[in-house]
Amino acid sequence: MRNIWERMADTMKQDLAKLKGTAAGVTKKTGEKLRKAEMLQKQIAAQRLEADELRTRRDQALVQAADRRRQQQLAEEAGEKALAAFAERDAEAFDQEAETLARMTDDADARIVELEQLFQEVRHALTRQELEEQELVRRETTAKLRREMSGLKETEPAHAEQEEPSADEVRSSMERQLMLLEKRHGERKNPSDYLET
After folding, report:
1. DSSP letter string over 59-88?
2. 158 pLDDT more than 60
3. 8 A C-beta contact, residue 119 and residue 44
4. Residue ranges of the domains in the chain?
């Protein structure tokens, strides 16, 4: 009976070691994909920062255009035609720059929305894949344990032979029986009385 339990324990230890190896492989693959997803997320965040920078530059161009128009008005009131013409051209240039930056900002925002939607799809796909891999490992482990237990039931005969007691166990058992026999049949006599002379 002891052999059955020892073999079952050894088999379970081996299966657990294999399971740890399989789980480590799944975890490694999933970890690599998650690291790539993190890298993609950082790149999307960088794109968002660039769009914010474009927005800031657009706002600055609008402010500079407004300043030039105010300066143009002051130059016209002061009768400075050359300064007024310069301020008008500069204001128009800032307006064109602001329009270009506004188009670039809108385009960047649209691309970021698209990238974020794609990233969400990738993240959900990775989560599904991770769950499927975990389920596969769990099923493989369950099937392997069932096979091992079925194998143990089939290979071991129903009437397993009991192990033979060791010589020490036999000796101590016999000694115990002899001592009980002496107690039942009267007082102990000196063992030297039984020595052959």
Report:
1. HHHHHHHHHHHHHHHHHHHTT-HHHHHHHH
2. no
3. yes
4. 2-160
